[in-house]
Structures are given as structure tokens and as C-alpha cells.
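Q: I'm writing up a methods section and want to include an example of the input and output format. Could you take the sequence below and give the corresponding predicted C-alpha cells, formatted cleanly so I can copy it straight into the document?
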Amino acid sequence: MANLTDLTIAEAQAGLAQGEFSSKEITEAHITAIEAARDLNAFVTETPERALADAEASDKRRAGGDVGALDGLPIAIKDLFCTKGIQSTASSHMLEGFIPSYESTVSSKMVDAGMVMLGKTNLDEFAMGSSNETSYFGPVLNPWKRSSDDQSLVPGGSSGGSASAVAARLCLAATGTDTGGSIRQPASFCGIVGMKPTYGRCSRWGIVAFASSLDQAGPMTRTVRDAAIMLQSMVGFDPKDTTSSEMPVPDFQAMLGQDIKGLKIGIPSEYRVEGTDPEILALWDQGVKWLEDAGAEAVEVSLPRTKYALPAYYIIAPAEASSNLARYDGMRYGLRADGENLAEVYENTRAEGFGNEVRRRILMGTYVLSAGYYDAYYIKAQKVRKLIADEFSAAFETVDAILTPAVPSAAFAHGEKSDDLLGMYLNDVMTVPASLAGLPGISVPAGLSSDGLPLGLQLITKAFDEETLFRVADVLEQSAGFTARPGEKA
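A: Here is the clean output for your methods example:
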């Protein structure tokens, strides 16, 4: 029998169903793996006792013939999801020690489906970052290393803890959240599958807010099929979230294994962004050929306003963050610093509770919302956002999916871009456009760089067409045949 931590979700489901092992056994294997890999700093909070209790309860249900969609599967939850009775920090000193009395809708659905919760994964503070270096609890390490040196690499962000944990076989899968690429970018850096569903597919209720018009939960897994399985238990209408969609939820696995003959795949030249690693552009060309060999037709599409997506995002997202993070004032929950009067308590709490990147984005957002600048920046950025969404809509009148690189480079070393804010923000240049348009996207590991690091390709489809997204992603995954894992020689 294969190592229990090497199994995919689909394989684990089959093994549990056939009685090859119990949920308790596979859970214990993952707890041991987490304990042996604490140097990665992938978890803020480990919950082994909760996991074993979940596993034992799952084994009892299975013995009685009552099996949920995720029953007995050891999964990690990004520490942006509030979990009842378990510390939920958003990787910030501001929320250190905060224990919610409620469960986020997404994690609640997964609990109802039988998930075994291993713990809460590390992230960039309040999901603000592209490298997982801004966490109050320390940076997360990527389990991958370059073949040319032994430097520690970033796992990407903000869902870097989840990506690192999945890649290192510390969990079968993990949740992530994607505001401008925070699922897809770390998935590419860590050689896993990261999927952002259409905005509104997953409820945002109980997820610590960064930018409310952009935030969306999604699965981080090792295969496309696993992403489809996991997403099925995360989605659905939620009356507690006014942006939650009432669109029917399809069977996401139903399209897997089908061919893509006759589908048209859009190739936007605007994604040949200056500074992109030539190896990634070559992989993109290879990806086009793989899909053509599978029977699809590559079609050039034009998305000329792509170049405005990143600046628009870095106006809209900080503006919404400035508003959302105003609630952290030391009065109701979380950190409360001392002060001689109310104003000082506010000032001291926020100064002590927020890290540099969070403060920077609050300041940016407050500035663009201030009198005299609201029209010049925020309103103009929202108009650009609408134009970008319209361009995607026009493109999807002629194509079924769009193929692009996921990121402009492979994972970089810790500290390499700490003093280069523009370079750090450019990590999201290829993922932000789909986020602004609210479209589903997925990063699929498709190759290795000459330095032995994973590289991902991104697929995007029209809103609420996750079926086509999974259908094409499955073919891309099969064509790429990516089997590399951290620690192996390229």
C-alpha cells in the first residue's frame, strides 16, 4: 500500500471505501508528517486532538453506512476562515488568541461533509502579500528547493501555508482564499492545483475580510479531480452572504475525462508581460500545443486593458481593506493596547496590532477614498474594472476558455523582493484580471524550470462555467503529466 500521505483525495476515498485503512490511520499519518515538518511553518495552529476525534467519528459513521462527501479525509483550513472554538488569527497579532463562537459557512459545509480538520494554515497577514513573508507568526517555507543552491524559497501568498502543506504531503488538501491570485500564485510556486471559483460560488460569511468585492474561497489540491471533489462541498447559496449566488451547482466531476475536441482556447498576447521568465513563455507555448493535440483550437484573443488591471486592483483592494479593517479598534475583540484616552487606545491598538504591509495598504486605501481623490482614483479604477470584465465577456463570445501563464516567474528566495514592492506586486499581474472580473480560474502544474522548480499554467472561463474549466484543466493536467515532488532531483 502506498504511503498514506501520498494519496490523492480520490485515492483516499477509494481506500476508505474498500476498508484498506481507516480514517484514524490516515489521520495519524498526516499528524506525524506535520510534526516532522514544522520547520516549514505551514501551520499557525495544529489540532491533532480534534483531528483524531473527527477521524474516529468518521470511522463510526462509515461502519454504519453513513458517509459524507469528504468523510474521513484529513484537510487543513487557511487561518482566514473562522472556526468555532479554534483560534482564528488571519496571521495577525491583532487577532492572536481570538477564538470564534461560530463557524464560517465554507468550513461548516466541509465539517458537515465529514472532513477531518488537521489545523489552521499560515498566511500573509490579513491575506495581504504574495510571498507569505508578512505573517505575524513568521514566514512559511516552500518545500521545493532550487537545484542550483540551498536557499529557502517563498511558497507564494497569501495562501502560502496551505500550498506548502499540500505540496509537502502534510494534508490531502487545504482551503485557500483568492483576492488577486492568492490561491493560483502559491499553487504555481508549490507545484499543486489551485482553483478560484466564480465570485459568489462560495460564501464569504465567516471569512476574515480583505477586499469584499474580490475575496473568494477555493480548494488547493494535488490534482484537478481532487479540486472538483473538494469544491463540491464548499459551494452553495448562503443567505448570510448578500453576494452569494443562487446559481445551480453542477456536478463538477462530471466533465472530467471528457475530450475537448472542438473547444476554442483563447490565447491573449497581452499576457506576454515584460519581465516574464522565458521558460514560462515557452511552457505556455507548449500548453497551447498540448491542447491543440487534444483536439482544441487555439484562437488569438485581445484583452488590451490587461495592463491596467494591476494598478486598478491596487486601488480597489486597499480601499476595501481600509474600510474592512476599521473594525479592529481594540473595543470588541482581538488585541487591545493601553492608552490614556479612547483615541490613544485606537492608535496604540492599530499601531501594535498591524504589520507593515497591512498598514501600508490601509494608508493607500484611505488615501484613495479621501475627499478630492475618490473620483480621481477609486471611481476611475472601478470604471477600468468594468472595462476589463467587458473585454473578457467579449472574448468568451468566441472562445470557451483562455490559457495563460499563472505567474511571471518561479518561486524566489526569502528576502529577495522584500525591498522591491513593485516587483512583489507584479507577482499577481497574470491572476488579477480574472479576479477583477469575478471569473473562475485554475493553476495547473505543467513543468519544471531549469532550476528544478514547478511552473503552472492558468485557465480562465466565463462566470459560473467551472464545468468547462475542470474539463480543460483535466486534459491539460494529463498532457503535462506532472509527477515531480519536493525533494526529488529534476
